[in-house]
Write a structure and sequence with these properties.
five-stranded mixed beta sheet; 5 strands; Alpha-Beta Plaits; binds flavin mononucleotide; globular; alpha+beta
Length: 137
């Protein structure tokens, strides 16, 4: 079974700040070790993140992410499903969505009405459109 989580949150630091790189480095290192995979989106002052993996590993990392003071107002959805990973081989991908596209992205996500499969599809599209390259590759 695959545990999948998606959340959005508000960042303390603005777009372009060095913290995103620091978050990405620690995320890739820890997630590789815990066999978690996923994708982080920076959209102006917000983060969107999708994570997938084993339930215990996920709960451990989510607890740390919840306590991280670099962001706040975290809003999560999680499901447990019998399906393959959406981001195999990506310990954590990253995309910085251009400011003029953020509104459209927010609307698309709102239109998913909390349906995680739809959300994952949108996140995959973002990964493709913005040519996100994980640091490790
Ligand atoms: C938006 C955001 C996304 C993060 N994503 C991850 C992640 O995918 N995996 C991870 O291990 N840490 C992630 N972190 C970092 C954790 O919150 C935490 O700093 C890190 O796991 C180290 O934990 P520790 O300080 O308790 O050692 C993220 C932090 C933020 C703010």
């Amino acid at each position: 079974m695959l545990f999948q989580t998606f959340y959005h949150s508000k960042s303390i630091f603005p777009r372009g700040h060095i913290t995103d790189l620091e978050i990405l480095r620690i995320a890739q290192e820890t997630n590789r070790h815990l066999r978690l995979t996923g994708f982080l989106v920076r959209a102006n002052g917000c983060f969107f993140q999708y994570l997938e993996g084993g339930v215990h590993e996920m709960l451990e990392v989510l607890e740390r992410i919840r306590l991280d003071t670099r962001h706040f107002d975290m809003n999560e959805i999680s499901v447990m499903r019998d399906e393959p990973r959406q981001f195999p081989g990506w310990s954590m991908g990253y995309a910085d969505v251009p400011p003029d596209e953020v509104r459209t992205l927010e609307q698309m996500l709102q239109n998913c009405h909390g349906n995680l499969s739809e959300i994952v599809r949108q996140v995959s599209d973002i990964a493709q459109q913005h040519g996100a390259t994980p640091l490790e590759e």
